[in-house]
Write a structure and sequence with these properties.
- It contains 4 helices and no strands.
- The radius of gyration is 18 Å and the shape is elongated.
- It is mostly helical.
- Helix 2 runs antiparallel to helix 3 and helix 2 packs parallel to helix 4.
Length: 147
Amino acid sequence: MDFKKIIKAALIPTVALVVLGVIGVVLGFVLSSVPFVPLLVGLGFFVVDCLIMVYAGYAAVKNSKLDLVSAALVGALAAFIAGIINGIISLVLMVVGVYSIAGSTAGAIGGATALVIGIVGLIIGVFINLVIGAVLGAIGGFIGQKM
């Protein structure tokens, strides 16, 4: 396994996932007053993210001449790094939004609770994203080997 090749192959998918994640979070917050729209936006971005992770594995095999395990690592690395960055951005925007409307003690307690829940969700979500990235990267690598 050549870790330099893996990191190089994961760079562009990671940047794409971070940019799409930031756009998705901002759109989710801007459109949060419209029912079901943030859900549809999030679902659409999730599908595009999955396609990017599959492509990351495919490109790792085709362009970087990596094996199937390395393709899975490319997808996992891209998903892990993007998950951390997007999770922190989302957490910061959530806390700023919650604390800006928390004018009372009850609102501040709710904001603190939201912060703790957000941090736990960030930790769990990053590892779920890592597994999804590895599986989808392996699928993309498998497709790349067969084509």
